[in-house]
Amino acid sequence: MASIELKQVSIDFPIYGISTRSLKHQLLRVSTGGRFTSGQNHVVTVRALDSLNLTIEHGDRVGFIGHNGAGKSTLLRVLSNIYPPSSGTVTIDGKISALLDIMLGMEPDATGFDNIILRGILQGLNYEEIHAKKMEIAEFTELGDYLSMPVRTYSTGMQLRLAFAIATSITPEILILDEVINTGDESFIQKAEKRIKQVISSAQIVVVASHDLGIIKDLCNKVLWLDQGSVRYYGDVPTGLNLYKNSNATP
Amino acid sequence: MANASLATSDLIEGIKSWRIWLLLGWQDIRLRYRRSYLGPWWITLSMLVTMVCLGFLYANLFKLPLNEFLPYLAIGMVVWALILSLITEGTSALVESTPYLKQISLPYSVFILRIITRNVLIFLHNIIPVVLVLLFFQVKISWALSGLFLSLIIIIFNGFCFAWILAILGARYRDLVPIVASIMQIAFFLTPIIWEARILPEKYRYLVDYNPFAQFVEIIRQPLLGEWPSMNAYIVTITISLLGMGVMLLLLKRTRKRIIYWL
Predict the structure, then answer these.
(1) In this structure, are A229 and A177 located in the same domain?
(2) Is residue A105 included in any domain, yes or no?
(3) In this structure, are A55 and A88 located in the same domain?
(4) Which residues in chain A have Cβ-Cβ distances shorter than 8 Å to B103?
């Protein structure tokens, strides 16, 4: 039984580069007894998530909505085990597969087949598993002989197709998506949609951030509305989407 | 507690993810030499050319017998190349892995071990011209050669610890990359590689005795020249290993949670 529980989770981003990042300042501070750069010493922080509480249960499909900068991607990265929280606790039960950037690890100079193996290994498969899946992935991409050529010779659409096919060849317990991936020409989009829905239905928990409210309505049974790092609404989809739409309509 | 477990699990899970770092490290080499006929053998060839040319040059300049000096120089250069790249590439290891670290949850150690893998592979290519030089000049082989195994373990272990330390500091302080580069440049000239320790006057001997790099080069060079490294060299290098491990663990425990926010 997969589950996710966040208690009082806050994320503070320290912003360096404005004043204190370089060694020079640290040294100057020492050599001038702290006077020279005093006042610049405190690091500016931005609070991306503010004391967030969230429980996601087995079987939930949660859609994250909110404006740019509301903290959607940050929260996805907390759930993906990428950002350790500045305070609070994150308890995750289940194996996480995060598809935040499907092009991650794509090596333009390696062939399509090499990239299948590379990305498979990155996603935690072993050699037997990835070799077993290789042909299925190759077939899905419809790239044929191109798979033996370096990826840099592909068009953007072909690269995305390959990346998509590899990334979605997993059977996740907890699936984390940043925008539902849509790619390729008309006929491929339909195929891709079918495949992503298959992956989503096989997962025990799905978390997806999207600006496309239609997709959220389509896929999710719960919606989380984030606003400036806090939960504005968490509950059933129609109510959440209505509240969100209304708040956008009246500025 | 939480910080310590995050640090140790990074190390343990990192080592367990050998598939990833072996593949990434191997791919780094393969891609660097893609579309060239000799491929990674360019590493071997260019090292051979460099050491032979430098060997002739310095043997003539310093009036040294070529059959003694060239093997000495060859080994020194290869060990230095290994140490240098472990340190300089280590310093930028985490910064350069930012795209991975921000998109996928992997132990950070993977990216340190990737650098170790890559440089051990380069070292293996580099050692071939050394063997050729040693065979050509019929350098004596003795039981001391078996000491090479321990020496390599010491070097790789130190490479891991110090690459981690420098990677963390390099992520926090971006000036570290050029600083380390300049220090290593100076260290090269202060370490007996293109000159022999015995030509130093007594009062400058401390340059070698207190130079850790000199000891690391010695523990590899002596076994290949058929001699056992000095006890001093072992004591220094093993002490540095233990210190390095301590500092690495301490630093990792204190900073592991915050590293991602520095990138």
Answers:
(1) no
(2) no
(3) yes
(4) 82, 98, 100-101, 104
- Among A22, A83, A104, the residue with its CB nearest the CB of B173 is A22
Half-sphere exposure of B260 (CA within 13 A, CB side): 23
One domain, residues A138 and A169: yes
**Does the beta carbon of A107 lie under 8 angstroms from any beta carbon of chain B?**
yes
Per-residue pLDDT of B217-259, as tens digits, reads 999 999 999 999 999 999 999 999 999 999 999 999 999 999 9
pTM: 0.89
Q: Do A26 and B27 touch (CB under 8 A)?
A: no
Residue-wise pLDDT tens digits, B133-177 = 999 999 888 899 999 999 999 999 999 999 999 999 999 999 999
Residue-range domain boundaries for chain B: 2-262
Q: Which of A14-18, A167-171, A196-200, B45-49 shows the lowest per-residue confidence on average (mean pLDDT)?
A: A14-18
Strands (E), A28-123: 44-56, 61-65, 87-93, 96-99
Task: Give the pLDDT confidence score for residue B131 in this predicted structure.
Answer: 94
Q: Is the pLDDT of residue A33 over 50?
A: no
Residue B140 Cα, gap to closest chain A Cα (Å) = 44
Beta carbon pairs, A and B, within 8 Å? 63
pLDDT of amino acid A34: 43
Per-residue pLDDT of A109-132, as tens digits, reads 899 999 999 988 988 888 898 999
Does residue A245 share a domain with residue A224?
Answer: yes
Residues A183 and A214 in one domain: no
Q: Which of B104, B179, B260 is the closest to A122 by Cβ?
A: B104
- The answer to whether residues A155 and A238 belong to one domain is no
Spell out which residues of chain A touch residue B104, defining contact as CB-CB under 8 Å.
80, 82, 98, 100, 104-105, 122
Q: Does B175 touch chain A (CB under 8 A)?
A: yes
| Domain with A18 in it | 3-94+210-249
Model pLDDT, residue A37: 43
- Identify whether residues A182 and A242 lie together within a single domain: no
**B63 at interface of A, judged by CB pairs closer than 8 A:** no
Contact B260 A117 (CB under 8 A): no
